[in-house]
Automatic annotation (TrEMBL):
This is non-specific protein-tyrosine kinase. It comes from Microscilla marina ATCC 23134. Its EC number is 2.7.10.2. The keyword Transmembrane applies. PANTHER family: FERRIC ENTEROBACTIN TRANSPORT PROTEIN FEPE (PTHR32309:SF13), TYROSINE-PROTEIN KINASE (PTHR32309). It catalyses: L-tyrosyl-[protein] + ATP = O-phospho-L-tyrosyl-[protein] + ADP + H(+). The chain crosses the membrane at residues 35-54, 504-528. It comes from the Bacteria. Residues 454-526 form the Tyrosine-protein kinase G-rich domain.
Length: 817
């Protein structure tokens, strides 16, 4: 017996136990070779999906322009003209406000009207529809929609010939179809329009399905809003970018160009509006002064024609000068009343106070408190404009700002009324003084006094008229000095390459995903690979010694186990079995010999499950030992599923079961083989209690009698993973051998072997690795077995060894080769 201290403790963890964490390059390479087809097909498949996606996805184009925002009023800066209302001169505003203005419905409505986007034309395709922009074969004119149900609705047109077309659409649950002629007015209770052919019409368009849509304003605004992008490119330089996306590149460019144009027009229009109001005010005042001057001029002419002189005495001149001074003050106050009236009208009409620029020669007393009130009112009006772009009139925020505006407007009106009252008082006082001075002219000729008065009034009005003309000229210069720094740094471009989908990116992603799937397939197959494939893996999963390996037989496919060693003594199979035969001497207890004629050796051969090749190994190992001039007998103790008799092409009429129940004697059951020194005993008829028969002393007597006749006894036992018969036999033999089949046996079987060794003290149990594909210097073999592939499956019943349709189809091609 071998010292138990030399047996490794299989319960002690070691590096080999963690075999899943160790990378087996040989197995990886083998899995890679097996998966190479899939690794090529998966990227091709994913790239094909990407190609189909690109083929049936409409490209999106983006047109862009770059703008520099700011407007300087060079004329105002030059002449130093400032308005009464703070913020009246434009400084460019903040960029966020400009961006919101560009994206506002004010701009969108002008774009829609300028480009005539009310009707869209399309050609139906099997998957994608193509839009006709500026080149439709037909055009809808004089359209009028009487029901909103026909807005944003597909109206199909199929051209029948050069004169007729069929119009169809879905109305509720019904499909309406009717044939019309081109240029024929189409009038219904829902719509009216006329369809005409364009210069782009071709006879090839016949029978091609087209359709058009009459777009609603809300749909067009939504379309512009969803595809327009406005962003800040450089905040310090006040540069913004305008982008528009569309499936048609020409349409995208035109929309960006129109937005740039409309925004420039609106910006300059807003700037010039204040100057326009100032000029209107000056024109009204000039007209009034001209009327007064004409009146006084007529009086002067009449006086001179009548009296032929204009001399006055010194006293009269002094009085007139005083009266002139008072009249000037009165005129100034009247001018202030006019300006206050203009401002009061603007407040009452809720006009834009930032655009008001009254012309005043002298400051108005009492208006010091007006400037902060007007500034606050102006700020509230600006806030209301911004809110109008975002909120509805019924929102709480709008109502709140309306209340604040009304309150601020009331305060301004009260202050204006108070100032107007004070000015009226001053005018009345001045007029009273003038009346007193005029009364002093009683001693002077009334005509001369009247002349002096008229002359002075005329000169006053003349001076004031010239002053107003100068102011008007200044405003004209200011208006001419409005320099638009709204510079289009880059015009809207015509995109050539779509921004989406990007072909290289899609192909890269799909190809990369295919490569990822290929690598994932290899990794998953590696991680899920639970079969023993080579000697290295077998050494990792079990502590039991490995006696040798047997190559896979490739010369011909064997349906059942056969004796092959006598056919070609120099084959790689024979060499491998000879190596195992030699190694058997190393696992026998000390002092014993495999060929000791005094003591015959018993060898059992088992496996975990059926199909691992134990019968093949037992048959051919027995043959190779017998070919060394030793008497060998094979015993088939797998009485549940016997196969040994099939290897020698004989019937299983009598055998071990008959001997154990004493129905036959040993000599009756021994059968000959093609090798003279090799005999075998088949299993015999299947008994109901194989395990009980082996437990009997009759089985020990059978082995004892055979040891007297033969040198080597090889027992083919049942799989120990399925039944316990094999373990009972292994306890009675000298050398228990365990067969593991490459690419068939699971790795977990190694733990079962270690447990079997530990629980039954099988110190000299050794493993034979069967059906190894690649063995240096040797060939291999291939054969079939009758056992089931997994634990507990197919052991007690025979299964027909039918090939799958795919295997039979592959075998046909192999035979043709």
């Amino acid at each position: 017996m071998t010292d138990q201290s030399n047996i490794p403790n299989i319960n002690t963890p070691s590096e080999d136990d963690d075999f899943l964490n160790a990378l087996d390059l040989e197995k990886v390479w083998e899995i890679f070779r097996k998966s190479i087809i899939w690794m090529l097909l998966l990227p091709l498949f994913t790239i094909s999906i990407g190609h189909l996606w690109l083929r049936y996805t409409k490209p999106v184009y983006k047109s862009s322009s770059t703008l520099k925002l700011a407007i300087k009023d060079e004329g105002v800066g030059m002449l130093g003209i400032k308005g009464l209302i703070p913020g009246g001169s434009y400084s460019g505003g903040n960029l966020v406000g400009e961006i919101e203005f560009i994206r506002s419905q004010i701009i969108f409505n002008d774009v829609i009207n300028a480009m005539d986007l009310w009707i869209s034309y399309y050609q139906q395709g099997n998957i994608l529809d193509a839009e006709y922009y500026k080149n439709p074969p037909f055009k809808v004119i004089d359209h009028q929609v009487k029901s909103d149900a026909f807005l944003d609705k597909n109206i199909n047109i199929e051209i029948i010939d050069d004169q007729r077309f069929q119009l169809s659409y879905v109305l509720g649950t019904q499909t309406v179809k009717k044939t019309y002629r081109f240029d024929q007015p189409i009038v219904t209770s829902y719509y009216s329009f006329k369809v005409i052919k364009t210069s782009f019409y071709k006879p090839a368009f016949r029978q091609i399905p087209f359709y058009f849509k009459i777009n609603s304003r809300q749909a067009l605004i939504s379309y512009l809003n969803n595809n327009l992008q406005v962003g800040i490119l450089n905040k310090s330089a006040r540069i913004i970018g305008i982008n528009f996306r569309d499936h048609h590149p020409q349409k995208a460019r035109d929309i960006v160009h129109v937005i740039d144009t409309i925004y420039l027009h609106k910006t300059l229009e807003n700037k010039k509006r204040a100057n326009t109001q100032q000029k209107a005010y000056l024109n009204r005042r000039l007209g009034e002064i001209e009327d007064s001057m004409r009146t006084y001029e007529a009086k002067i002419q009449s006086f001179m024609l009548k009296f032929k002189t204009n001399d006055v005495n010194k006293k009269l001149e002094e009085s007139v000068k005083e009266i002139e001074k008072l009249i000037k003050e009165k005129i100034v106050f009247n001018e202030q009343l006019a300006a206050i009236k203009e401002l009061d009208d603007l407040v009452n009409k809720q006009g834009d106070l930032s655009e008001f620029l009254p012309t005043l020669t002298t400051p108005i007393q009492g208006l010091g408190q007006l400037q902060p009130l007007i500034s606050k009112l102006n700020q509230l009006q600006e806030n209301k404009k911004i809110l109008a772009l975002k909120a509805t009139g019924s929102s709480i925020v709008v109502k709140d700002i309306n209340q604040k505006l009304e309150l601020q407007r009331t305060q301004v009106q009260k202050l204006l009324a108070r100032v107007r009252k004070n000015i009226y008082k001053k005018i009345v006082a001045i007029q009273s003084t003038i009346n007193e001075l005029e009364a002093d002219f009683g001693g002077l000729p009334a005509q001369e006094a009247e002349y002096k008065r008229v002359e002075r009034l005329y000169k006053i009005y003349e001076g004031y008229y010239l002053q107003m003309l100068n102011r008007k000229a200044e405003i004209g210069i200011s208006e001419a000095g409005i320099v638009p720094e709204f510079v289009i740094l880059s015009n809207a471009n015509l995109p050539k390459i779509p921004i989406s989908p990007k072909h290289l990116l899609i192909y890269g992603i799909t190809g990369g995903f295919g490569l990822f799937l290929s690598l994932a397939l290899v990794v998953i197959r590696y991680l899920l690979h639970n079969k023993v494939t080579n000697l290295r893996e077998l050494e990792r999963v079990t502590k039991a010694p490995i006696l040798g390996t047997i190559p896979r037989y490739k010369h011909r496919k064997l349906k059942y186990t056969k004796l092959l060693v006598h056919l070609n003594p120099k084959s790689s199979l024979n060499e491998a079995l000879r190596s195992i035969r030699t190694n058997l001497a190393f696992i026998l207890p000390e002092g014993q010999n495999l060929y000791d004629i005094k003591d015959a050796k018993i060898i059992s051969i088992t496996s975990t499950i059926s199909g691992e090749g134990k019968t093949f190994v037992a048959t051919n190992l027995g043959g190779i030992i017998a070919m060394s001039d030793k008497k060998v007998i094979l015993i088939d103790c797998d009485m549940r599923k016997p196969k040994l008799h099939i290897a020698f092409d004989v019937e299983n009429e009598k055998g071990v079961s008959n001997i154990l129940i004493k129905q036959n004697v040993i000599e009756d059951c021994i059968q000959k083989t093609p090798i003279d020194t090799l005999d075998f005993i088949s299993a015999g008829p299947t008994p109901p209690n194989p395990s009980e028969l082996i437990l009997r002393n009759d089985f020990d007597d059978l082995l004892a009698k055979l040891k007297e006749i033969y040198d080597i006894i090889i027992i083919d036992t049942p799989p120990v993973g399925l039944v316990t018969d094999g373990v009972l036999i292994m306890k009675r033999v000298d050398v228990p051998l365990y067969v593991v089949k490459a690419h068939y046996s699971r790795k977990i079987f190694g733990k079962g072997i270690d447990k079997l060794v530990q629980s039954n003290n099988f110190h000299n149990l050794s493993i034979v690795l069967n059906s190894v594909k690649h063995l240096t210097g040797y060939g291999g073999y291939k054969y079939g077995y009758g056992y089931g592939r997994y634990y507990g499956g197919g052991y007690y019943e025979d299964k027909s060894n039918k090939q799958s349709f795919l295997l039979r189809l592959l075998s046909i091609f192999k035979r043709k080769k």
